[in-house]
Amino acid sequence: MKPKPVKIKPPSWLKRWALGKFDLSASSGDELVDRLRAAQRKNVIAPNSLSMMEGVLQVDQLKVRDIMIPRSHIQFVFHDDKYHDILNRVLESGHSRYPVLDDNLDDVEGVLLAKDLLKYVGREDEFDMDDILRPAIVVPEGQKLESLLAHFRRSRNHMAVVVDEYSGTAGLVTIEDVLEQIVGEIDDEHDHIDDKLDIRKHGDGRFTVLAGTEISVFNQYFKTSLPDSAFDTVGGVVTNEFGKIPKQHDELMIEEIKFRVLRSDSRRIQLLEVQTAEAA
């Protein structure tokens, strides 16, 4: 006798919305996604809605470690930094929140909001970090994203410090990182965006590149020579080098450029992180 298939239960709000539209019963996550895509092909749901639904289902399977900003990429300030040193860091990186350290990355004392620095404009001598330091949320790297998102909503915080099994700082995660798994990449006002190139330069020396970017455009931007005879897009070249459809966070080197998969599905790569040898 075959075992009874396990029903995959989508989030309650999604189920309530879709029950009247199409059959949600499925014996696997892949089957449920296939049914959602079939509904989209029949124009029951819009393409953007399908993308977000797939993102919701993906969030249910991901953990904090899958999307966190790694330790080496964290932008931080020290507790004893001078006002103007902190201000310069904010202007350079363009972030709105910073972990505040005592001595090293394993000694996070709290979180600094860049907007709180404004109260000291014109009276910088009165700057007191303890007066504006906010408590830091600490989460384990194995926590599920669905649980983390609920935590963010309850606490009204937008950033958490991620720790490993030894209580050392493993990375950083923001509410934006979680939401991007559902709605896709969220443009930040401090990101440098070239609408023609689909390449975004970040303040910490990283680039995000849409996988559909033409190879000729990529080569011109990064001064590289990726082959363009067999493939038209960067995603095609990277997929060929992997020899399969890579998963999120898979990495490889091509021409001294590090490629990291930020987002992909069962059919193709969608978004890549690029780090050049100079930035590394």
Automatic annotation (TrEMBL):
GO terms for molecular function: flavin adenine dinucleotide binding. Residues 68-127, 132-189 form the CBS domain. The lineage of its organism: Bacteria, Pseudomonadati, Pseudomonadota, Gammaproteobacteria, Thiotrichales. Plays a role in the transport of magnesium and cobalt ions. Gene3D superfamilies: 3.30.465.10, CBS-domain. Keywords: CBS domain, Cobalt, Magnesium, Repeat, Transport. The keyword Repeat applies. Belongs to the UPF0053 family. Signal peptide: none annotated. This is Magnesium and cobalt efflux protein CorC. It holds the Pfam family CorC_HlyC. The keyword Transport applies. GO terms for cellular component: plasma membrane. PROSITE patterns: CBS. InterPro entries: CBS_dom, CBS_dom_sf, CorC_N, FAD-bd_PCMH-like_sf, FAD-bd_PCMH_sub2, Ion_transp-like_CBS, Transptr-assoc_dom.
